[in-house]
Specification:
mainly alpha; 9 helices; 0% strand
């Protein structure tokens, strides 16, 4: 006889469970990731859970969207429709990236292998996205070669920032210090101030991919802000490591 325990939860019930199982966000988490991407990811996670997808499968769905968008940047001549497709794929990939951890919490917890896979995919996409911009601009853009240094520099900055954040939590955990996710979330004003450093904002910027001068203006501004953020963050992180010592 069928019992109520065997009946899968409805989508609203699954979303309610997810809202009650959210992990805290870091004090430095920017607004799009906290207030937009996590909510889209929550919906994706509820759907994935009802479909029976595992967290690792959700990670691969995220990767498929993201790397499809990256491939379009490098292989398709810039146009308004190509920009919309790229932005949509990257935004969806980022939302699915938020969903894998939420699915893991719904299923009772994640695994070290799953966390490794998630971070590994993140590392590849962060570096390759900007290198795809180099390829796209070189193949299709009528730009000076000096301009190509911007996405190359952005790749360095984005990779170093991601590695620094991961290394911070790894070293602190090894010494029994709470990670940034265990801290109280930052203020709305702080999140808005950090918006230009948000990967989601970078994804949305590719809507302008077909309007090269405007895209390069926005992309260059994001690069400058992210480079300044990394310089300031590196000093802060080093001081934190000295206090941990």
């Amino acid at each position: 006889m069928t019992t109520t325990d065997s009946i899968p939860p409805t989508l609203p019930e699954t979303l309610a469970r997810l809202r009650g199982a959210q992990k805290g966000h870091a004090r430095g988490a920017p607004a799009y990731s906290v207030y937009v991407n996590r909510r889209i990811g929550r919906l994706f996670a509820a759907v994935a859970y009802r479909w029976g997808l595992t967290p690792n499968q959700v990670t691969m769905v995220s990767a498929a969207h993201t790397f499809a968008g990256i491939a379009v940047i490098a292989t398709v001549p810039p146009s308004w429709w190509a920009g919309v497709i790229v932005a949509a794929l990257l935004v969806a990939g980022y939302a699915w990236d938020s969903a894998d951890g939420q699915v893991a919490r719904l299923r009772g917890g994640g695994s070290i292998a799953g966390e490794w896979l998630d971070h590994f995919v993140d590392a590849v996409k962060i570096a390759s996205l900007h290198l795809a911009v180099v390829v796209g601009l070189y193949r299709f853009g009528d730009v000076d070669e000096v301009v190509l240094l911007v996405p190359i520099g952005f790749s360095v900055v984005a990779t170093a920032t991601f590695f620094g954040m991961i290394l911070n939590d790894l070293l602190k955990a090894a010494r029994g210090v709470a990670s940034t996710h265990a801290r109280a979330g930052g203020t709305f004003a702080r999140s808005m101030l950090l918006l230009p450093t948000d990967f989601g904002v970078l994804c949305l910027a590719f809507v302008l991919w077909g309007a090269s001068p405007l895209f390069l203006l926005v992309y260059g501004a994001l690069f400058a802000v992210n480079a300044l953020f990394l310089c300031a963050a590196a000093v802060k992180w080093f001081r934190e490591m000295r206090r941990v010592d």
